[in-house]
Amino acid sequence: MSCQHKNGGFGAAPGHDPHMLYTVSAVQILATVDALSELDRGVPKKKQRVGKFIADLQDRDTGTFAGDEWGETDTRFVYGAFNALSLLNLLHIIDVPKAVSHIDACRNFDGGYGISPGAESHAGQVFTCVGTLAIANRLDLVDRDQLGAWLSERQVGNGGLNGRPEKKEDVCYSWWVASSLAMIDRLHWIDGPKLSEFILRCQDPSTGGFSDRPGDTVDVFHTVFGLAGLSLLKYPGLREVDPV
């Protein structure tokens, strides 16, 4: 809570500027440890201030969201806003239909989604866009077969997944691609056992962590998404994760 600013937003660390991404992470962490009540302690209406910080970053003309006061827009921020506000039960304070229209405008001829209208399709952006539509109960706007085909083509020969054509596989896409496929009921379109084998080859037997590719240095980022991917694939011993 020491990372929160008076305007309701959170920074990466105490004293850092508030930003959408860190605010979303703060809300997610509090929800994970069952501590959202912390936002109702001390200063009155602290939860509402978090919501207002997020809502004020929406462009009311286009429906998209900025990351901070400096105005950079990205579909990541749209998803982040929907994710955090849904956890806080404050989704009603933003213009949901306008944001949904913006997401729909980011859909490309190949069925994928980009960072903004007309931008190249990318698996990470597909997750943010499909996740936003899932939270808004508007998955009816997705061409599931076309998008499912594009996402399935992200699987390469060794079982791993890449983020766009002609790029290397990376464990993090075990989440971005697989979760998107799960949201549109097309996860069975990829070779799950082969993906699981790829993820497990990226685990360091000494530290237990996961890397982007076999033999590389492990880190928390890829460990989180490696485990999340295995969970989506129903790997034994892991709790099932919500793809949204």
Protein architecture, described:
- This protein has 244 residues and is mainly α.
- 42% of the residues lie in helices and 0% in strands.
- The protein is built from nine helices and no strands.
- Helix 6 packs antiparallel against helix 7.
- The longest helix is centred in the N-terminal third of the chain and has 13 residues, at 20-32.
- It is globular.
- It starts with 19 loop residues before the first helix and ends in a 12-residue tail after the last helix.
Query: Distance between termini?
Result: 25 Å
How helix-rich are the residues, as a percent range?
Answer: 40-55%
Task: Please tell me what the overall shape is.
Answer: globular
- According to DSSP, the number of beta strands is 0
Q: Which runs of at least 5 residues are low in confidence (pLDDT < 50)?
A: none
Total DSSP helices: 9
Q: Summarize the main sheet.
A: none
Order of helices and strands: HHHHHHHHH
* Classification by helices and strands: mainly alpha
| Mean pLDDT value | 96
Q: How much of the sequence is in beta strands? A: under 5%
Question: What value does the Rg take, in angstroms?
Answer: 18 Å
Please tag this protein with its features:
mainly alpha; single chain; 244 residues; 42% helix
